[in-house]
Amino acid sequence: MSAADQDAAPVVLRGGTVHDPATGRARVTDVRLEGGVIATGDAQPGDRVIDVTGRIVSPGLVDLHTHIFAGQDLGVDADGVAFPSGTTTMIDTGSAGAHLIGAFRASTLERSTVGIRAFLNIATIGATSILLGGELRAPWYVSEEEAVAAIDAHRDFVVGVKVRASADVGGEHALPALAAARRVADRVGLPLMVHLGPPPVGVDEIADSLREGDILTHAFTGWPGNAVVDDDGRTRPSVARARQRGVLLDIGHGASGFSLEVARRMLAAGQPPDTISTDLHAYSSKTVGDLPQVMSRFLALGMPLGDVLRCTTVTPARAVGLAVGELTPGSRADVTVLELVDADVEYADGFGATIRASRELRAVQTFLGGQQVYERGSA
Ligand SMILES: [Zn+2]
Known about the structure:
TIM Barrel, alpha/beta, 15 strands, binds zinc ion, Urease, subunit C, domain 1, 2 domains, seven-stranded parallel beta sheet, eight-stranded mixed beta sheet
C-alpha cells in the first residue's frame, strides 16, 4: 500500500446495493473505505459521504484478458480504459514475450496506476502486429528456456503463460507451441492460458491439455468446428471434462472471440462462463466497447447480475492469485459503483450476430486503494 492510499480521506458509500461475490451476498448497506482498505464500523465525523442509493457497489472489476502494452500496436492505454469502465485490475494476456517483457514493465507496469499483471507469451516476440499473422509462424521465436528465465526475472507481475494455439497464429507450428507452453507453465508452476481460435488446433486437443487452474480464453468463440458446444446444445465432452478438472472458461470477447449463439447454448446447457473479460486491444475496442458492456451482454442473455459480477471480480482475481475482487473488511479498497440504466442498445458479437438490451451497466465511480480515480461526468 502506498503513502497516498494511507492519506486518502475516508469515504462512505451510502445506501447502495452492495454485492460481494466472494460471499454471494447482496444487500443494501454502507461501505466505508479507510486507509486504503475496506473498513468496519459506521461513518465518522469528517468522512466523505457519497449517496449511491439505487446503485450497485461492487469490488473493483478485474479484466482477465486485455492488451495494454503501451507503444505496441495492440496496446490500449491502461488507466484511460480501466477507470471509466470500473476496472481496477487488468491482466495483459501475452502482448509481450520473453524479449519484450522488460519493455512492458518499463512502458506500462511502471507508468500506470491501475493494478496490472501479465501472462507471458510463449513466443519471445509476443502478440504484436496481429494484422500480419501470428507470432508462432516462425518456430524459432518459441523458446522454453527464454520464457522460464523471463518469468523468473519478472515473477512479481507475471502470473501465467499464454499461447495462441490456432491455425491463424501458428499454422503447423501451433501444436508444438502449445506443448512448449504447457511445459513452461509446469516448470514455473503458473497457470496456462490458451486461446481458442479456428482449427487446427482443435478444441479437444486444447481442452485435454489443460489442468486445474488453467484458462481457456475466447471459450465461447464461434469458429466453425471449434465451438465448445455442438449444434444440439451439448457441451463437448472434452470441455465438460476440463471443467470438472477445474479448468476455467474465460470469455475474452475481442473482435472474433465471442459468439452470442454459443453463449446462448452454453447458458441453456447450464454451462456459464467462469470469467467474463474483454480482450480489449486497438483492433477490438469498436466491437467490444468496455467491460461493463460485455457484462451487459450476459445480463441480456439472462445471466443473473450476481453471477456476472463474480465473473468479473473474485473469480478472475483468484485465477491469477490476487487478493482483490472482494469487499471483506481489511481487503484492499478497490471498489466500483455501477448503475444499471434503462437503455435501448444493440451489441455485436464479432460473428455477425447482435443482441438488443433494455438495460446497460455503466460505471459511476471507481476507487483504487480507497482513492477515487473516476467520477462519471467529470473529465
Ligand atoms: Zn487477446
